[in-house]
Design goal:
Elements lengths: L3 H5 L1 H4 L8 H9 L8 E2 H8 L4 H13 L9 H17 L9 H4 L2 E2 L1 H19 L14 H19 L5 H18 L2 H22 L1
Amino acid sequence: MSNPSQHESDATDVVAKEPEGLVELLQLLANIREDGGSIRLGRVLDIVGRRSFGPMLLLAGLITVAPLIGDIPGVPTLIGIFVFLIALQLMLGRDYFWLPSFLLERQIRPQTLHKVVVWMMPTARFTDRFLRPRLMFLVNGGASYGVALLAMLVSLMMPLMEFIPFSANAAGLTLTLFGLALIARDGLIALFAFALTGASVGVIVWALL
């Protein structure tokens, strides 16, 4: 039986190459292997990296958007907790993101992960063609804290989104765009994410009225 404390320290033993776009992230996911069949979220984070906010936001967004994973009841809430914790730690100035074991030990079947990668790859190739550094004042330096605050806002809404059709997918797309904006230093993508955040808030308010 594995030692949970060892899982928490996995990232210190793995040198992660941070993805520079959607295609690279999907390629990293496609190459993940783990003994015992199912793949733990902790293992995925070890490969993607736990020291950079952008890749972790991008991963959270993709998990929520993916139809074979994000549609599972409870997944949007878990991703909301995940995003809230990493955004909070960014605001507190941590350079390594800690996550509780109940999140790190969540598992996915390799076959499901493979299907998700195949399904997303054409869109990823198309999207990466448009990423480039621009309007960088929206994502550089202190602006990243603004992104973190908005990501926290989205994360707090995600449990409610479980009861509103398609709203969790919108939240996943928002997180994906924020992640891409930070990775590519693309402020234009960040603007789209800002707009989607506002739209998500509007949907929640409308649903609650």
